């Protein structure tokens, strides 16, 4: 969060659009890693967790994650516990924190400075880089002769 207590501006609302924002492709095309071994005492993952895992890796944010799925293993175990009916006093809050760490909520997209591009943006050629701020200042400066009365 910004120091003034507000969320950072979205890319369309900031003057310096090229600074710090990552545009994510709407279709990540990331291979789905296998689920880790099921929690101890369980024979296999529930169908709900398997479907959740597959859907998770189709999200645009998946292109920014570790391709092995290692960082999402705890989230899978939490999801499985919730599906199996474990007392969920703090499980949903913990799962929400994993979602925030991986950019799966609007709030975390702003904090991570990620934005999801449009499908037509993927087809466009990359833009030419904008001139640096220093170059623009130099162009505006001109020499002044101090000796003139």
Gist?
The protein is mainly α and 149 residues long.
Number of domains: 1
Give the proportion of residues in helices: 25-40%
Low-confidence stretches: 124-131
Radius of gyration from the alpha-carbon trace, in angstroms? 23 Å
CA-CA gap between termini: 54 Å
Number of helices: 6
Structural class: mainly alpha
Give the DSSP E fraction (strand runs of 2 or more residues). under 5%
Lateral arrangement of strands in the main beta sheet: 1-2
Per DSSP E runs of 2 or more residues, the count of β-strands stands at 2
N-to-C SSE series? EHHHHEHH
Task: Give the overall pLDDT as a whole number.
Answer: 78
Estimate the global geometry from the Cα principal axes: elongated
Reported for the largest beta sheet, the result is: 2 strands, parallel
Give a structural overview.
The N and C termini lie far apart (54 Å). About 5% of the residues have low confidence. This protein is mainly alpha-helical and 149 residues long. It has a two-stranded parallel ribbon. The protein contains 6 helices and 2 strands; from the N terminus they run E-H-H-H-H-E-H-H. It has one domain. It is elongated, with a radius of gyration of 23 Å.
């Amino acid at each position: 969060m910004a120091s003034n207590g507000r969320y950072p501006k979205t890319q369309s609302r900031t003057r310096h659009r090229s600074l710090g924002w990552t545009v994510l492709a709407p279709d990540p095309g990331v291979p789905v890693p296998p689920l880790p071994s099921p929690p101890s005492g369980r024979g296999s993952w529930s169908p709900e967790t398997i479907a959740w895992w597959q859907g998770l890796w189709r999200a645009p944010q998946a292109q920014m994650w570790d391709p092995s799925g290692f960082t999402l293993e705890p989230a899978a175990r939490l999801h499985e516990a919730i599906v199996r009916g474990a007392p969920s006093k703090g499980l949903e809050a913990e799962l929400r924190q994993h979602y925030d760490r991986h950019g799966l909520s609007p709030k975390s997209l702003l904090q991570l400075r990620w934005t999801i591009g449009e499908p037509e943006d993927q087809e466009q050629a990359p833009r030419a880089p904008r001139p640096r701020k220093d170059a623009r200042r130099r162009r505006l400066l001109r020499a002044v002769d101090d000796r003139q009365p």
